[in-house]
Design a protein that fits this description.
There is one protein chain. By secondary structure, the chain is mainly α. The chain has 2 domains: 232 residues, no CATH class; 101 residues. It is 67% helix and 1% strand. It contains 15 helices and 2 strands. Strands 1-2 form a two-stranded antiparallel sheet. The longest helix has 38 residues. It is globular and about 70 Å long. The protein binds zinc ion (2 copies). One zinc ion (ZN) binds next to α2 and α4. The site of one zinc ion has 7 residues, from α2 and α4.
């Protein structure tokens, strides 16, 4: 039975096994005899958040995806916070993550393919030396040139020890609760930080909605976003990976995007990449049409014949309207480029172009609403969750 499995990666295997066991035993044991201070609990949460944001705003959106640019001082802070999370060096992490996006779901090439199951994508991929996990920095020439990234890569172990032992001990000493610092800010924070972020590779590829694309397993899920500093909007992220936002709607819970935006307001972050709204709406609508078509085909035998024909017609009309908007948009874009190129565009002309672009964007928004309503009327779920 036992097909030869790749050899165990001892260091990550020991860290990832020993830390949760130690936390489960030591924390209740200590708490039974002494109380942890409120300060230690509060700092545990603060530190947890800092670690999380170091990974999401730093490792992920800044270094893996270049979704924005950050001042060197921000880079150093994000690097230190990210190091505390013990998820390997930025270079290893970001290079592996670029491979994840490029070969998403591929069981041989995606380092944490969700198609290999929950356990593998959550943690298993780090425990053994799988060929899919072999580092290949050829996809990260920019990072090989980044001084902060390379400094961390060179001194990774020392920095990990500093952030995970020295800093929690110092915190414990300062708040007069040494063991609170070591056990809560040090140990519990690390274990929670690990598993919360691991959910992005496991759960966020399994549980939730697919409003933008069903061409990969990534899902949008508010509950996962709550635990992952906003990374739970993973369906959006996999189709538009260069956007600095994962929760693209203003009301979606994405503290990472709020941090990046706030940094840009004070001049510490720049060049924030945003996918145009029109492109986003287009993806959503295409997904709706696809789904409507699938549902119609599935349910056509169960619904009365008349209904099906009427629905088909309405969807066909909507689709025609959609194609017309796309064509108009294309033409307007060409016109706009032509005028821009000649540099004859007056301010008021530019503004009138903007109004026309906005009009079309609004048209797609309304169409989206109509399609949603149509789906509801058909009593068909708008998006599948599985
Ligand atoms: Zn993913
Ligand atoms: Zn990503």
């Amino acid at each position: 039975m036992s097909q030869s499995k790749p050899p165990i990666n001892w260091l990550p295997a020991i860290v990832l096994t020993a830390t949760p066991i130690a936390a489960l035993i030591l924390i209740p044991w200590y708490a039974m005899q002494h109380d942890f201070s409120t300060a230690a609990w509060v700092l545990m949460v603060v530190f947890l958040y800092m670690n999380g944001l170091g990974i999401t705003a730093g490792y992920h959106r800044l270094w893996a995806h270049k979704a924005y640019e950050a001042h060197w001082s921000v880079q150093i802070i994000l690097m230190l916070w990210g190091t505390a999370a013990i998820q390997n060096s930025i270079l290893n992490w970001a290079s592996g993550h670029r491979t994840h996006h490029r070969f998403v779901d591929d069981v041989d090439k995606d380092p944490y393919s969700a198609k290999r199951g929950f356990w593998f994508s959550h943690i298993g991929w780090m425990l053994r030396d799988y060929p899919s996990g072999t580092p290949d920095y050829s996809n990260a020439p920019d990072l090989l040139k980044n001084k902060v990234v390379m400094f961390q890569h060179k001194h990774y172990l020392a920095l990990v020890l500093l952030m995970n032992f020295a800093v929690p001990m110092l915190i414990g000493y300062l708040i007069n609760d040494f063991w609170g610092g070591v056990l809560l800010v040090g140990l519990l924070r690390l274990v929670l930080s690990h598993h919360f972020t691991f959910f992005i590779n496991s759960l966020a590829h399994m549980w939730g909605k697919q409003p933008y694309t069903d061409e990969n397993t990534a899902r949008d899920n508010f509950w996962i976003a709550l635990l992952t500093y906003g990374e739970g909007y993973h369906n959006f992220h996999h189709i538009f990976q260069y956007d600095y936002r994962n929760g693209v709607k203003w009301w979606q819970f994405d503290p990472t995007k709020w941090l990046i935006l706030a940094l840009s307001w004070v001049g510490l972050a720049s060049n924030l990449k945003r996918i145009p709204n029109f492109t986003i709406r287009k993806a959503e609508l295409l997904m709706q049409f696809k789904r409507a078509q699938q549902q119609l085909e599935q349910k056509s035998s169960k619904l009365p014949h008349v209904d099906i024909e009427a629905l088909k017609q309405r969807i066909a009309l909507e689709y025609d309207a959609f194609v017309a908007t796309m064509n108009e948009w294309g033409k307007l874009k060409e016109e706009w480029y032509a005028e821009k190129k000649q540099a004859v565009m007056q301010k008021w002309e530019d503004a009138s172009f903007k109004t026309r672009f906005n009009e079309m964007e609004y048209r797609l928004k309304m169409q989206n609403k109509r399609m949603q309503l149509l789906m509801q009327q058909m009593m068909l779920p708008q998006v599948t969750t599985s």
